[in-house]
Structure formats: C-alpha cells, structure tokens
Amino acid sequence: MAVPEEPGVATVVAARDGDQRALDDLVSGYLPLVYNIVGHALGGHADTDDVVQETMLRAVHGLPGLRDPAGFRSWLVVIAMNQIRLRHRERHRVPVTGPVPQDVADPGADFVDLTIMRLQLSGQRREVVAATRWLSEDERELLSLWWLEAAGRLTRTEVADALELTPQHTAVRVQRVKAQLDAARIVVRTLERTPRCPELADVVAEWDGEPSPLWRKRIARHSRECVRCERCGYDLASVEGLLARLPLVPLPAALVFDPSTLVVSPVTASPVTGGKIGLFLKGTLAKSLAAAAATVLVTGVVVAVLPSGEEPVARAIPAVTQSMSTPPPTTVPPSSVSSSVPPSTTTATKPAPPAVPVTASVKKGVSTWNFDGVGKALTDVRAGWYYNWAAQPDGIATPPNVEFVPMIWGTKFTDDATLARAKANGKVLLGFNEPDFPEQANMTPEQALDLWPKLAATGLRLGSPAVAHSGDKAGGWLDRFMTGAAQRGLRVDFIAVHWYGSDFSDAAVGHLKNYLDAVHARYGKPVWLTEYALIDFSGGTARFPTQTQLAAFARGSSTMMEGLPYVERYAWFALPAEKPGTGLYAPGGTPNEAGKAYREAG
Question: What sequence ranges are listed for the domain Asl1-like glycosyl hydrolase catalytic (predicted)?
Fold first, then answer.
C-alpha cells in the first residue's frame, strides 16, 4: 500500500470541527508515520500494532481540544512516544515467574526483517537496519525519531519535544546513539564475516544468540582489539546518508485503512474512523475492542453497541461518493488511458466535463540543456520558465512567454563578464549549484559568502545557492550560509533547493511536501525547487522509476506545489530524455508518458 501524503492544517481544522471525510484523511495520512515510529522503537514486538492503534485512538479522542492545528504532527508524535514508554513499563512489570505471555514476541512481525524486506535493502543500508537490534530500548526510542528526522519526515524541534529535551540535549543524545549504532554495525559485520574468527567463537561461547547492548559491547571490543576483525570497522558510510533516502516502511496488510467503517471506543464513545484500525489489528487491544464494539451500517448511520448494557451511540456520517483507498483519476490515471486525455467519469450515465484549455503556469518550469527539439519541447511542455545552469541560453531559442532564468554555477563563473551576461539575460539570478557536493560547485558556506556580494551587485532578484539535500537541517550547508548572510547583512531574496525521492510510490508527493514545508519553516522565505524528480541513488548506481510512476509523480507533485503559496517556482529535472532517466521529451521534441503528464499539470 502506498503511503498517503500527510494532510495539512486545513484538514486538521476540518477534522477537529467534525468533518468526517477530513477525519478519515487525517487518520490514514498519519498512520504510516506512527507505524514507523512505533515499529522502530519497539523493534517489531507483537505489541506494535496495539500501540499504533492506541496512539490513533487517543489522538482522535483528544482532537477537539487541540489548540494549535499547525502542531498536530508534533502532538501526535508525543502521544506515540508516551504510548511506547507506557508499553515498555508494562512489559517490565511482567513477573519473571509463572506462565510466559503468549504474545511477548512475534518473529513474523520483526520490524528489522520487515524493513529490510519491504524496502529491498542491501549493503550498508541493510547493515544499519540490522544493527538496530543491538540497541537498548531507550536508544531505539531515540533512533525511531532521529531516523525520520534524517529522512526529512520530522524536524529537530519535533524530535526534541517528543523526547522532552532541549534541542541541544537532543543533539548530544543523537550523537551518542549514532556512536552506538556504528558500534552495532561493526558487530553485524563481525558476526557475518566468514570464516568466523576463532577468537570470536570463544568470546560468544556463552551468548544465547539474542542481540543486546551487553553483547554489543563485548563483540565490538573484540573487533577493535582483534587483528583479524578490526577491518570490519573500515569504510563505514555516514549513517545520515544511508538513512536520508529511506522511505517509510509500508503498512502491513493488517493496518490497511478502510474509512468505510466507523469504530466507537467503548471507553470514550468517541468516533474513530477506519474499521481495520479498530477491528482488524492483531493483539490484545484489538481483541478487546472487537469484543466491546460491534458496528453496523444502516442508511449512513453507524451504531456502536457498547458493553455492560449501555445505550448504543449513533453517529451520522456523510455518504462516501468515492473510496479513499482508490486515488482520484487526477492523481493516478488508469493505465489504459493516455495521460494527455481526461479520464472518463466513474458514472456511465454522466457525460465527461468539457476539457479545460491548459495554459502555461508561471510557477512550473524545467531544467534543460540544448538538444534536438528543445524549442519545440519548451513550447509544448507549457512551462512558464526554464534554466540551463548558465548565465545565457547558449543557443536555446526561448519561446515567447517563457522566461529564461540565468545562474552563476560556481566559483569560476563569478567574473565580471559572466555576471554582466547574466544581468542582460534575466530578471532573476540563481546562485551556486549544489555547492554541498564535491562533483558540483563544491564550495564551503564561507567561500560562497565571500563571493555573494558580486552576485548581489547585479541588482537582480537573487536566490540562495541550491543545495542538493538537507536544506531544512540545523547546521547544514544552507543553514550555515543563511546564518552567515544574516550576520554579514547580505541579501537573499528566496531559497533554492533540490530534491530527489527514492520512494517511487504515491507517497513521494507527501515526502516532497514535507521537505518544502520544513525548508520554508526554517527560513521564512519564498522557495524555488530548481531540480526535482524521482531517482534512487542509494545502491551505488542510479535507479529510476517506470514511466507510469514518473507520470503519476509529475502530475501529483505539480498539483501540490501549485497550491503552496510559498513555492514561487519549481523545475523538473530534466526536459531532455536522451537516455534512460527522468527526462520528459525525446529527441525531436516528442513527449513521453511523463512528459505528457507534466505538460497537463500545473
């Protein structure tokens, strides 16, 4: 199941005010986030589903009292962490004598195995996930939050609030957990090394085979001191980089959201959408809810029969005209229908609405280089602007009503002549290209700041250097640049960033939105997304989505960004499709499936 886009503030407000559809969207939209937090924190314990369910029940019950709808996600994460801690305390109170509870562990639900399998992990990313088995409960709790921060799904402030710590203390805790996780990665390598070191066999002779912090320390100590095993600590890639591009672990079948059923909590009598959340989870809480509340749909009214002879509670719900488990045709068109043709309506007797002429969007743009058919493609794609990483069009014939935006790519292009050409060819100037990457502009924030006055002297509206990643992170390249610009009194009119998603499902639109929201929240300036597409760089060689996946993302992402007031411009990477990748137009200027989708979007 694809992870849905996280709903925004408007949905939270509507759900709080009693809108049933909004409540459906809110629960289904945030369920994947909660599932991943709880799953990583509990390590796949059988209680995972119960804790997820209890978190959502408590959130829905407390929603009417939520004062700050913009803080819904932070509030939900705090609820999840409180439920995780409560479950840890309850487990520790289980007596050590007497019968052993039957559902203390569920090997089939091991979250580490599920993560590796569902995300198809290999190499060092698989080692990182496997290493989490060796962390303590407290360490896994923190990791469950920091993991999502590294992936751009939570902010540092949200992590700190959930841990009830200051951001500074959180940073210290994160560094400690990263050190423990790296030690655990070495342990995983040491144990998997073949043939196994004879001295290691002596170290683990009394080990019961269950990962634990104690045995992590012992095996890691051996690896550091052993001549044969010390190489297991070599070439460990940065854990942030390994986790940053990991998508959320997809929901299991037991957690598939079904908004057509309503569950009423026997404790609170509060309506909770999603029958499969309330009734079809395994575990003791699900069983008690199933026994306590039976639901019946009668002419749009759900009646919950409560235990102990209490009066039944009835709640009218609006008729559902479309199943929310099926994305609307504007997001994912039927595969048999060309994306350039409006899909037919779902009711056979109702004629299709007349086609609406599509005009160029001032926001929508493309990055391109000069290729066969570039002029035809620039006209056909119906974008309002383009750029080519240069100060002038370099032979590209700019169509009427399409704006060329110049760029100062890097250090060697800050000479007076290049800056003059940029000023003559545009009204807006893009700053340095991916200075945080050695293969691109490769500049420190201080080097960029030293050169920035030359760019500002053009008088053009000026965008920040476009970082490749982590534009929303405190202490990241862009954060250091913006801090330095403020200290030096340098002008930066808008923020430019790049984004590439490794999750090719429908959830990619939500991942992108979360990143843009976080960037805007950090700097409070308009945002330009000057490169974006779906590419998975994690395996050493780039992996690309199918044309159908690209088309769905092109359509959904453009629609999403057109609706974000702080996003001024966005540009797909790239216009030409000369080789396999994410390009939109083949040589000669003919659009592929993704090109047709991007043309019609925006």
Answer: 382-598
Q: What is the strand order of the sheet 361-367 is part of?
A: 403-404, 383-387, 361-367, 567-573, 527-534, 495-501
Do 155 and 260 fall into the same domain?
Answer: no
d(C-alpha 46, C-alpha 103), whole Å: 6
Residue 499: enclosing H or E segment and its boundaries? strand 495-501
Residue 129 counted as domain residue: yes
Tell me, yes or no, whether 227 and 263 share the same domain.
no
Q: Which domain holds residue 261?
A: 256-316
Angle of helix 20-42 versus helix 111-118 axis, rounded to 10: 110
Compute the half-sphere exposure of residue 596: CA atoms within 13 Å on the CB side of its CA: 13
Q: pLDDT below 50 — which residues of the chain?
A: 1-4, 93-109, 257-359
In terms of domains, do 375 and 240 share one?
A: no
Closest to 532 measured CA to CA, from 546, 553, 549:
553
Q: Residue 204's pLDDT is what?
A: 87
Residue 289 lies in a domain: yes
Which tokens belong to 397?
């014939």
| DSSP, residue by residue, 333-349 | --TTS-TTSPPPPSSTT
Sequence-ordered alpha helix ranges (H) in 460-546: 477-488, 508-523
CB 130 within 8 Å of CB 496? no
Residue 363: strand, helix, or coil: strand
pLDDT at 235: 75
* 484, 495 contact by CB (below 8 A): no
For helices 111-118 and 123-131, angle between their N-to-C axes, nearest 10 degrees: 160
- Beta strands 361-367 and 567-573, pairing class: parallel
Q: What interhelical angle do 156-163 and 167-192 show, nearest 10?
A: 90
Show the tokens assigned to 91.
């487990």
Is there a contact between 467 and 436 (Cβ–Cβ < 8 Å)? yes
294, 435: one domain = no
The structural domain count of the chain equals 3
Alpha-carbon distances, residue 214 vs 136, 159, 225 (angstroms): 9, 27, 17
Alpha helix positions (H), 204-249: 213-225, 239-244
Both structure tokens of 37: 């937090």
CA 543 → CA 275, 355, 431, 473, distances in Å?
A: 37, 36, 28, 26
Answer whether 4's CB lies under 8 Å from 35's CB. Answer: no
Q: Using an 8 Å Cβ cutoff, are 83 and 39 in contact?
A: no
Q: How far apart are CA 168 and CA 191, in angstroms?
A: 35
- Ramachandran class of 541: left when φ > 0, alpha when ψ lies in -120 to 50, beta otherwise: beta
User: Would you say residue 55 lies in a domain?
Assistant: no
Residue 182 lies in a domain: yes
Looking at the fold, whether 219 and 283 belong to one and the same domain comes out as no
If asked whether residues 223 and 260 sit together in one domain, one would say no
pLDDT at position 45: 60
Identify the pLDDT of residue 323.
Answer: 27
CA 420 – CA 403 distance, rounded (Å): 18
Report H helices in 164-256: 167-192, 198-203, 213-225, 239-244
Q: What is the pLDDT of residue 239?
A: 79
Categorise residue 129: left if φ over 0, alpha if ψ from -120 to 50, beta otherwise.
Answer: alpha
